Amino acid sequence: MKFRMNPVYKKELKISVRTVRMAMIILGYNAVLALIGLLSFYFTFNYSFNNNIDYSGILQIYLILAVIEFGLVLFVVPAFTASAISGEREKQTLEILLTTKLKPSQIIFGKLLSSISSTLLLVFSSLPILAIVFSIGGIRLFDLIQLMLFCVTTAIFVGSIGIFFSTCFKKTVPSTVFTYGSIILLVIGTLAIIAVSYMIGVRNYDNLYSASSTMIEYNPPGVGHAINLLLINPAVSLLALLSKQFGSPSYLSSLLSHYGKTNTVIFDHWYAISILIQMLLAVVLLCISVRTLDPLKNKK
Length: 300
What we know:
It is a single chain. By secondary structure, the chain is an all-alpha fold. It has one domain (7-299). The protein has 14 helices and no strands. Helix 3 (56-81) packs parallel to helix 8 and helix 8 (141-168) packs antiparallel against helix 10 (234-245). The longest helix is centred in the middle third of the chain and has 40 residues, at 172-211. It is flat and about 70 Å long.
């Protein structure tokens, strides 16, 4: 059976990869990562005050590199996907694509794959640098694979948001603004909502506690099941993954349980459940994008 590549993805891949610019970006990105890794190793092994090597510093190097990889995916992928469809409209080539035999779903998924491929190429090209940490110990090969898969799922999730707004808007500027606004809302906004809700609840509880004449145990309420809002936050998913890899799987649950409560199963399997929810949201956004792009369905 012959494998047939998505025509849009194939065309975009040839244009983006066969350039000197892409090779220089890969070289520069990996050079910066290698410099950070080597400097971290140098300070870890040569600047010990008690002549003992602190191997926990190796895990900190892995943490720094993992956060850099996550930040790259989180903020670079939307830049490509936010202009995927709106850019075609501005160049007046979208109508030509729609008049071909390509289905709207092929256009959407082809644009998504081509947009995240360049970023994922940077992520996977840096795998040998992360493997330096693996060679010292403390991090397993399975942990590196998990981190790579997490970057892929995060790229699909944030990429689907960019594709959605790129389909909804005719111009790239508003599409980019709404895409990054949604990313900021997901990462920072959800944390701010939980923090503000918690502080308001504590303040109201303090007023009641001070006015109460009976001596009761001080036990301020949390935000309750609203803590589940963080399941759509990719940064919290990364924290759940890293805490599990560092041998502290209960760290996230103990941290979140201070601010709210939820089912024990959700706390115990936070990473898997959050990734599943984010992938379901990505599928919904892509389906809406396909329907929005289809001129026949819009006409009906």
